[in-house]
Amino acid sequence: MIDFDLDKHDVNHVHFIGIGGISMSAIAEVLLTFGYEVSGSDMKSSSITEKLSKKGAKITIGHDKDQFPSCDLVVYTAAVKDDNPELIKAKKQNIPIVSRAEMLGLLMKKFKRSIAVSGTHGKTTTTSMISLILEYSDFDPTILVGGELDQIGGNVKVGNREYFVTEACEYVGSFLKFFPTIGIILNIEADHLDYFKDLDHIIDTFTEFANLIPKSGFLIAFKDDPNVQKVLAKVDCPIITYGSDASCNYWAENIHFNENGFASFDVFHQKIFLGSFELNIPGKHNVDNALGAIACCHTLGVPIEKIIKNLKMFHGTHRRFDLLGTLGDITIVDDYAHHPTEIKATLEAACKVPHNQLWCIFQPHTYTRTKALLNDFASSFDHADKIIISDIYAAREKDTGEIHSKDLVEKIKSYNKNVVYMDNFEKIAEYVNCQAQAKDLVLTMGAGDIYKVGKLLLNKKG
């Protein structure tokens, strides 16, 4: 754990290398609101850097040691390499340097209650649910979420110093730099195998995260997940569970779906009926996410009637079953799903939405994930009528030639013959535009830039 404190070390000016990232910019905005002097650099100008400039941050485009300001602390992203000229100069000047995750942990220390939402899937949705419940229940939380949430006008909202709500990502052990007083574990599965050795390594890392929570706090956990149960056996703080039956502290019964695939369900706590809930986002997986949010907010003292009302107001974040528009009477939806379990859950949710044929246009995300989970990916598309696989989105990786989207297509054919590979977005959009029929539902899916296909399709209107 980092031995540093923003107050004890008399920090007034913080400089961000890579300030244009969604998480870095959000942290910078919080610090600006708290009265810190903030500067930063990024490779290109964007709406994010322009927004920060208007709020008072001093932004420079490009990384140049001659533009590096006098400051008290430097924050950098994982994308910043050791040869970055600003990073080199900061080291020469003996300025304290912290990673983005470490900075987020330092920020948590400034709040009485820091809520950290972890899990392989559902972090952004559950964090957003908790945030809106607390916001519209007059708790005035400070919010930092990994997606665009319309109700707060982006991904960050600065409130009081009582409650801080954020996502807690397990990749490279980032959440081990945090100081949570309340933790949530939604689920644990094999992922990020470019960093983790295996599933046991992942479970051990989540266990470390859970043990960061003090005895004065509490851990909320999805008991239905066997990997989460392994963590619970080794945790010392108070535990609150949720799931599908009365062995949990909170559970749901009488789950039904309307014509849009939105769920209604009853929630029980300690064998007492709490209330009936309705969601405005589709899928059984979002019932589970909502239960985690309900357990958190109810434990914090939010009246149940406000939780019911505020959850119904939640319509999702951008890139989570996000309706992009229609092409004639063909509906186009985009989703961030990039793990086999997420793909299955999203396609199951899509099946509950009235449609003719269900198209899934999937962009695999990273070579290591595609290779390590190839068989799991292959069996994830059962609910799709038409499948198109695009090239793998490299993200932080280089192509070593060990895996290709064509390998995934061949594996999928064992389960679903209606799959093709296409090597560019224009081809995909043209193919779908020619082949899709009335009432079809077209779903673009992946954590990269596959959403652009939907935009290309919508540009073909008329």
Key traits:
462 residues, alpha/beta, UDP-N-acetylmuramoyl-L-alanine:D-glutamate ligase, Protein-Tyrosine Phosphatase, Chain A, 10-stranded mixed beta sheet, 6-stranded mixed beta sheet, 15 helices, 21 strands, 31% helix, 25% strand
- CATH superfamily of the largest domain, please? Mur-like, catalytic domain
| Number of distinct helices | 15
Number of domains: 3
Whole-Å distance between the termini? 57 Å
Topology-level CATH name of the largest domain: UDP-N-acetylmuramoyl-L-alanine:D-glutamate ligase
CATH architecture level-2 label of the largest domain: 3-Layer(aba) Sandwich
The structure class reads alpha/beta
Specify the CATH class of the largest domain. Alpha Beta
Number of strands: 21
What is the radius of gyration?
A: 22 Å
3D structure, described in words:
By secondary structure, this protein is of the alpha/beta class. The chain has three domains: 13-100, Rossmann fold (3-Layer(aba) Sandwich); 111-313, UDP-N-acetylmuramoyl-L-alanine:D-glutamate ligase (3-Layer(aba) Sandwich); 322-458, Protein-Tyrosine Phosphatase, Chain A. It is built from 15 helices and 21 strands. The strands form three sheets. A ten-stranded mixed beta sheet has the order 8-7-9-6-10-11-12-13-14-15, sandwiched between helices. Helix 6 (199-210) packs across helix 7 (226-232). The longest helix has 16 residues, at 284-299. The termini are far apart. The model has no long low-confidence stretch (mean pLDDT 94).
